[in-house]
Design a protein that fits this description.
- It is a single chain.
- By secondary structure, the protein is an alpha/beta fold.
- It folds into three domains: 159 residues, Adenylosuccinate Synthetase, subunit A, domain 1 (Adenylosuccinate Synthetase, Chain A, domain 1, 3-Layer(aba) Sandwich), CATH 3.40.440; 94 residues, Adenylosuccinate Synthetase, subunit A, domain 2 (Orthogonal Bundle); 157 residues, Adenylosuccinate Synthetase, Chain A, domain 3, CATH 3.90.170.10.
- It binds guanosine-5'-diphosphate (GDP), 6-O-phosphoryl inosine monophosphate and magnesium ion.
Length: 429
């Protein structure tokens, strides 16, 4: 068996897209199981850059891709992405892209609500991507959501939109002071998307299981990162879905016995986009160095990403929460040129040092990172293909991450390109 979950260990943008694209060579199916187009996953193949927000990152390797039931999907964005990938020569059709009939549909009022809530929060805003993710998940849990299967039942769909908008429009107009949404316009627009997407919609859990029973290998592609998880992240500065590995099962309709391992993607330093705590954040020249050398701008919103040192406290949180069996360290090349590197190994709070991540954000705000220092390297490592050829200090950095987390590092990424990678152990081998 070889079905692996790939998840982000930090606050997203760890390089999941690159690694899923790389590992997809060995898989048959690639499945997204949560989130929506808040995600932005970048793949660089033969120098050409592709960014996907909804279509799983296995599409460039010609694999069958599934959008699982756990997602919230904006059909306008999905149709746009299918066209974008097709225009770049990617083969994409109902044969290799399947959408769960149970996935939730992001409606125009979800996007309006997202922006309205953020505006209302003012300085306390979360810094969401504004894509309607939170409000769509709210409706799912409130049992007033619209699923892809509903798009295929026009009469029922019309009725639901009219009923739901009755309440939403009241809220938009009277609470947020915003424009209301015309149900008939929404219905016409969405039935148009339904027509385009109908051939892609299926019971993906059933299709996945057929494949698994036929020994197909599955890669489950996480979005966001462990510390943006709705339960385990830095609440309320989180996204609205469960980003940890356990949700690969719920969000795709596959049982845990079919998962063989969990690979955690670790950026060699830490970044965060949007508001919320970030203990190792650097508001100095070193942070700027990481930001500019790492080209740290959000793939979805283009916002500048906040940067800081690697944090072993959050990594160990991710090891525990996801049951990580292997690590991938990305963006090692970005650290080159810094004389001294730091890794946070604990948080000093009230005179003691904690090695676990506090739940209370007021406690976290008073925590001071405790660092250990490691010597850096100055060589360009982006063409290195084997671990043994890395500069000694780069090897030490990788080995220190293994020691601190007690999880083996399987892959080290040294550049954005698919080929700029050092594979130490191939999980599928
Ligand atoms: P994801 O959301 O986890 O898929 O990550 P993003 O695609 O949002 O952000 C990661 C960024 O880093 C992208 O621009 C990638 O092309 C880039 N990247 C990935 N791995 C490496 C690496 O090893 N080195 C460098 N320099 N860039 C990388
Ligand atoms: P990938 O998959 C980084 C952040 C937003 C905001 C918070 C809530 O590319 O790693 P939301 O729109 O989800 O309600 O926003 O979560 N966020 C991400 N940050 N990478 C992502 O995805 C993110 N998806 C959401 O910036 O702080
Ligand atoms: Mg991203």
């Amino acid at each position: 068996m070889g079905n692996f979950v790939v998840i982000g260990t930090q606050w997203g943008d760890e390089g999941k897209g690159k690694i899923v694209d790389l590992l997809a060579e060995y898989a048959d199916y690639v499945v997204r199981f949560q989130g929506g187009n808040n995600a932005g996953h970048t793949m660089v193949v033969n120098g050409e850059k592709f960014i996907s927000h909804l279509v799983p990152s296995g599409i460039l390797q010609g694999k069958t891709c599934f959008i699982g039931n756990g997602l919230v999907v904006d059909p306008e964005v999905l149709v746009g992405e299918i066209n974008y990938l097709t225009s770049k020569g990617v083969d994409i059709s109902p044969k290799n892209l399947r959408i769960s009939e149970k996935a939730q549909v992001i409606m125009p009022y979800h996007k309006q609500m997202d922006l309205a809530r953020e505006n209302k929060k003012g300085e306390n805003k979360i810094g969401t991507t504004g894509r309607g993710i939170g409000p769509c998940y709210e409706d799912k849990v409130s049992r007033v959501g619209i699923r892809f299967i509903d798009l295929l039942m026009p009469e029922r769909f019309k009725q639901t939109v009219r009923t739901v908008l009755d309440e939403k429009n009241f809220q938009l107009k009277n609470y947020f002071g915003m424009e209301t949404v015309d149900p008939e316009e929404v219905i016409a627009q969405y039935l148009g998307y339904a027509e385009i997407l109908a051939p892609y919609i299926a019971d993906t859990s059933v299709e996945l299981m057929k494949g698994i029973l036929a020994d197909k290998k599955v890669l489950f592609e996480g979005a966001q990162g462990t510390h943006l998880d709705i339960d385990h992240g830095t609440y309320p500065f989180v996204t609205s879905s469960s980003t940890v590995s356990g949700n690969a099962c719920c969000g795709s309709g596959v049982g845990p016995k079919d998962i063989s391992g969990v690979i955690g993607i670790v950026k060699a330093y830490t970044t965060r986009v949007g508001a919320g705590p970030f203990p190792t954040e650097l508001l100095d020249a070193t942070g700027d160095y990481m930001q500019s050398k790492g080209a740290e701008f959000g793939a979805t919103t283009g916002r500048r990403r906040r940067c800081g040192w690697l944090d072993a406290v959050i990594l160990n949180n991710a090891v525990r929460l996801n049951g990580l069996t292997g690590l991938v360290i990305t963006k090692m090349d970005v650290l080159g040129g810094l004389d001294t590197l730091k890794i946070c190994t604990g948080y000093k709070y009230n005179g003691t040092v904690m090695d676990t991540f506090p739940t209370d954000l007021d406690v976290l705000a008073k925590c001071e990172p405790v660092y250990e220092e490691l010597p850096g390297w100055s060589e360009d490592i982006s063409t290195v293909k084997e671990f043994r050829n890395l500069p000694l200090n780069a090897k030490r950095y990788v080995q220190r991450v293994e020691e601190l987390t007690r999880v083996p590092v399987d892959i080290v990424s040294v550049g954005p390109g698919r080929e700029e990678t050092i594979v130490i152990t191939n999980p599928f081998a």
